[in-house]
Amino acid sequence: MEGLKQEFLLAGGTGMIGSALSERLIRDGHQVSVLSRRSDLRKAVRVFAWNPSDGSMDPGALRDGQVIINLAGSSIAGGRWTDSAKKEIIRSRVNASNTLISGLLESGCRPRAILQASAIGYYGH
Known about the structure:
Number of helices: 2
Strand order of the largest sheet: 4-3-2-1-5-6
Strand content: 15-25%
Number of strands: 6
Structural class: alpha/beta
Radius of gyration: 15 Å
Largest sheet: 6 strands, mixed
Distance between the termini: 31 Å
């Protein structure tokens, strides 16, 4: 996609992979917006509020023709994988996906593409 600039919306854009991806996309000249529960993010990206736990998001984040990348979910490196931790890892990813789907259905927006990835391994140092 050399020379073709895109508009990206990242869910999970503040995590390890999402942060690196957004920096790279910006460096390549793309427009990047992030869905976040925090409003104090770096100024290079536009931030839209969302809370996957209660299924809410700012409908203004969604636009026709954008590329949506969902990397959202609780950290897999946050401690022991107890039964409750595993349930939270799954719940956080399902809630994030459901929130995006509901937002798209309600808004009628047609993204150019939707990419979803979820870590199930360990990255190391």
